[in-house]
Amino acid sequence: MKNTTLPESATRGWVVLAGFLTFMITILALKHYQVQDRTIAAMISIGATVVVLAVLDIFVVKVHRRESTGLDWSKNDPSISRTLTKFIGLLGSIGFIAFLYWLFPEYHGSFYDSFYEFFWMILPWWLVLSLPYIYILDSKQKSPRDSYYQMGSLVMLKFDKVNFAEIWQHLLGWLVKGFFLPLMFTYLGNDISKFIAFDFSTIVDFKTFFDFTFDNLFLFDVGIVSMGYIMSLKLLDSHLRSTEPTMRGWLVAVICYQPFWSLVGKQYIDYVSPKGWGYWFSDSPTLYALWGSMILILYGIYLWASVMFGLRFSNLTHRGILTNGPYRYTKHPAYVSKNIAWWFTSVPFLVSESLAETIRRCFLVLLINFVYYLRAKTEEDHLGRDPIYVQYSKWIDEHGLFRWLKW
């Protein structure tokens, strides 16, 4: 049936643009003042952006009054008992992730030092502010016995009050945060340090411009992503509605990230040719600029897709449905643009060693394309439990850029 309407997006384009500009101005200020501590630099960049986005979301967009928050501001039912139970649930959740960090050798090296420094700096403030936050929001919740209440009940061994299905979803949500936040925050600190040390006078031609822009597109990306994993709050309507429940969904997502990518990528999907795109176009400045510009445009679309999440970015979770920005044209703009970009950067179809080697590398790029296809389908299956996403999918099927492919 035609004439499906496009649902309202969870974010506002002008709000996320304000956040993006804030992040950009902040890292330029950090460079100007030559802030050398990468942890402090990352915290400042995230903190400034969060303040702008939170103020606009609450006082202008008024996201805290949305039905999806589960809050009723006319209600006033405070409970010290529920608050303490939820606080214990928060401590139990942190303890769960801390146990995993202690257990797995991956988290014992120096790579995550800046994240641990960040964690210990914010932990006292986090715990102190959590109590009044929980107390106030608990009094306004339509269903106050939420996942933190369930977790607190579990920690206190009050099994008669525990919904184990809710506990499972809660722990999966924390597992997402515990896996991705250290990785992204560490990347952010490292990328900001490189940006602060960069000498703009070295940009003298398109090649140096390309290298600088390419690197810093990912600086902005990990900044937005890190912020999303930190700011999961009902007050901002950025909380987790649900977490990917299937092993397949988790598998195809986490293999695309370190430390798993070091094994999978190097041993099974190493499609990169010794002669990348720059080699083939180095003798023609015009073609080099055109091809390089296309790569930057594709990764620019990828960044645009990340920016549109505002405070809501997170792999493997549902934190609101986006229908604006590049999501107005396809359900998977980041995946589409990134997968096309890999063909442009690796140019596996150009014969550099032998025809057989060229065909082999093309198959490997197709393999990673297939991994992202599976990621897209598992995300659709997960989000498809939300009627808003079903409506959005129908609209995309009728009006989307790839409607002929049902993408």
Would you give an account of this structure?
By secondary structure, the chain is mostly helical. The chain has one domain (13-405). It is 65% helix and 1% strand. The chain contains 14 helices and 2 strands; from the N terminus they run H-H-H-H-H-H-H-E-H-H-H-H-E-H-H-H. It has helices at 13-32, 38-61, 80-103, 113-140, 147-155, 164-197, 206-230, 247-254, 260-267, 277-281, 285-307, 333-346, 355-383, 387-399, and strands at 242-243, 317-318. Strands 1-2 form a two-stranded antiparallel ribbon. Helix 1 packs antiparallel against helix 2, helix 2 (38-61) runs parallel beside helix 4 and helix 3 packs antiparallel against helix 4. The protein is globular, with a radius of gyration of 23 Å. The two termini are 18 Å apart. The mean pLDDT is 95.
Architecture blueprint of SSEs:
Blueprint: H1 13-32, H2 38-61, H3 80-103, H4 113-140, H5 147-155, H6 164-197, H7 206-230, E1 242-243, H8 247-254, H9 260-267, H10 277-281, H11 285-307, E2 317-318, H12 333-346, H13 355-383, H14 387-399
Antiparallel strand pairs: 1-2
Helix pairs in contact: 1-2, 1-6, 2-4, 2-6, 2-7, 3-4, 3-5, 3-6, 4-6, 5-6, 6-7, 7-11, 8-13, 11-12, 12-13
In short:
The protein has 14 helices and two strands. It has helices spanning 13-32, 38-61, 80-103, 113-140, 147-155, 164-197, 206-230, 247-254, 260-267, 277-281, 285-307, 333-346, 355-383, 387-399; strands at residues 242-243, 317-318. A two-stranded antiparallel ribbon has the order 1-2.
Succession of helices and strands? HHHHHHHEHHHHEHHH
Portion in strands: under 5%
Report the average pLDDT across residues: 95
- Gap from first CA to last CA: 18 Å
Helix content: 55-70%
Largest sheet, in brief, is:
2 strands, antiparallel
Count of helical segments?
Answer: 14
Name the structural class.
mainly alpha
Estimated radius of gyration: 23 Å
How would the global form be characterised?
A: globular
Major sheet: arrangement of strands: 1-2
